[in-house]
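thread: overnight batch results

M.L. [08:02]
morning all. the overnight job finished for the chain we discussed friday. pasting input first so we're all looking at the same thing
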Amino acid sequence: MEYLDFELPIKELEEQLDKCNLIGEESDVDVSTTCKQIEKKLEETKKNIYKNLTAWQRVQLSRHPSRPYTLDYIRALCGPTFLELFGDRNVKDDKAMIGGLGKIGDQSYMFIGQQKGFNTKTRQFRNFGMANPEGYRKALRLMRMAEKFGIPVVTLIDTPGAYPGLEAEERGQGEAIARNIFEMFRLQVPIITIIVGEGASGGALGIGVGDRVFMLENTWYSVISPESCSSILWRSWEFKEQAAEALKLTSFDMKKNKMIDDIIPEPLGGAHYDREKTFETVQKYIVETYDELKKLSTEKLINQRMDKYANMGEFKE
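M.L. [08:03]
and the structure it wrote out:
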């Protein structure tokens, strides 16, 4: 387990508890009382830390290397029924954007999402979860396929942004994202969107138009990352913590501002502390939400989706 800087008190107590248990196993000394005291202090410390997280600390948790990624969710939800589909039928297959058909129970879903890597080699292979235009065009192709066969769409967002390289711009990055947003508004099947990690900029919006949008508790959703915001406003990354607070990017801020529909709770410490529980909770939200959306007619579904986004924000004429 890797620890973030604000988690160091937890690391120290866990090390003390391991040593205490080891002494009890290797000697005749009764250390059960001491171990229980350390366990109690550890639990209190965890609660105090995780119940009072700053916006920047939640950003750090969303990027935790042990946190489950999109494919982890899909494999846990669908098991062997998941069939990955490849290519945009135009340029190539984008490894940063994955998608395919899978079943939860007896219901088929089209899963689409950004995939990050878990080590240096796979991060390069997945382009750090930053999709090129062909990734968004692949996503749109899969959405249209789902629409053709009446299959609901589930999008899982985890990206630091769309790939900003010259070649991506040459192939129409902005147009690809805008086209996805336009087409998702009138897609004739239910769309369930879940932010499972980072939700940055147009890279997230390219698959982020949903009938219901959920965020896991320790994730963020914003037009720009705290580091980039800090570098623009202060010409330095040193003010990223202030930027994170000002951007109002946490799940609680987004729910308060009515930009998302609900927050999916995580185990104490984050999704990586109890993956199975996190997967079960996400599955419950998907199944219950689809049971609600499938009752709507196609016309009402699309109208509700459009009204949902038209009513966001405040303005004066």
